[in-house]
Design brief:
Blueprint lengths: L6 E5 L3 E6 L4 E6 L2 E4 L5 E4 H10 L4 E4 L2 E2 L2 E2 L2 H14 L9 E6 L5 H13 L4 E6 H8 L10 E6 L4 E7 L2 E8 L3 H16 L1 E2 L2 H11 L11 E7 L5 E6 L1 H24 L3 H8 L3 E4 L8 H9 L3 E3 L6 H11 L8 E2 L5
Parallel strand pairs: 1-9, 9-10, 11-17, 17-18
Antiparallel strand pairs: 1-2, 2-3, 4-5, 4-6, 7-8, 10-19, 11-12, 12-13, 14-15, 15-16
Helix pairs in contact: 2-3, 4-10, 5-6, 5-7, 7-9
Amino acid sequence: MTVGSDLAIDFGSATTRVADSRGTMLFEQPTVAAVDGDTGRLLGIGEKALAVGLATAGRVRLVRPVRHGQLVDIALAEEVLGEVVRSSGVSRLSHPRVLACVHVGATHVQRRALDRALRRVGAREVRFVEQPVACAVGMGLAIEEPAGVMVVDVGAGMTDVAVLALGGMVTATSLAVGGDDADDAVRLSIARRFGLVVDSATATEVRRRIGSVVAALDRPRLEVRGRDAATGEPTVAVLSAAEVAPVLEDLVRPILAAAVQCIATAPPDLANDLLRSCVHLCGEGSLLDGLDARLADATGLVVRAAAEPGHSAVLGAARCLMHLDSMRSSVTSTSRR
C-alpha cells in the first residue's frame, strides 16, 4: 500500500472490515481478541484469536472489544485496531486518512474514543460516516437526489434505519438489536427447553439453518450437540424451526416497528417517494430467513436485499473517501457535534 493511502473501517460488533479508497477489501475478520488471562497481553485478533482460544482453553480469555456498536474496552480496542491496520498492510508511518462507520446516534464520547484509538495507531485524520449513509452509497443508491430512499441495516449488535435524501439522513433511528442478540436468545432457549449448553458458534448455526420469522414447515429438524447443564456430559437435542421461531420473533418485532416509525415521521413527499421505490435491506443480520418478507408486510413497501449485505457499509465508506468534497454534509469529524 502506498504512503498516504486512505482507509474505510467498519469496526463492527462481530466483524471488522477494512477497505481502501478503491474498494479493495484489505481485512475481514471477527472482532475478537485473545488476551492472556494472567498478564493481560494481547495474543492475537480475529481468526488467530479464536485458534489460540481453542488451543489454550482456560489460560486465554476471548474478548470482544465492541458490543452493541460501542467500545466496551477502549484500551483493548486501541490494541486491536493497531493490529487491524498492520494486518491491512498499512504502516503507522504512512499516516492514512481514515473514514470510520458509526451508528445513528453515536455520541460525541463514542466518536471521540474511536478517533483517539485510530490516531494512536497512525491515522493523520479521522472522519465518520453514519451506517445508513455508508450502506446506501455502498448499494449504489442516489442519496444526493431529492427523492427519498430508505435503508434498514441489521448488523450483529445494532440496527440502523433511515430515510435519506439530498445527500443525508432526513429521519433515522437505531436499536441495540442485531444478529448477536438472536444467537444469544437461541442459546438461552435451548438451555431452558432442553437443559443443553451450546457455544455461540452452534447457536449461529441453528439460526442460519432453521431460524426463520415466517412459516418454515418444510425445514428439517436439526441435531444439536452440547453438554448437559446439570452433569456436564455431552448430549444431543433435536430442534425444529417452530421451536426457534418465537425467540426470533421477539427480536424482529422492534426492528419492524422502527421501520414503520421512520416512514411515519418522514416528510409526506419523501414517504410518497418510497411508494415508487423500495426499502433497501442490508447488514449480516438481514440474512435471517423471512426478514425481508416481514419487513415488506409491515411497511407495505417492496424490500430489496443487498447483494453483499455485510460489505455494504465498508464499501460505501470507501466510495465516500473518493468523493469527500461532495460528501461533506454526511462525513463528520469529532470537532462537529
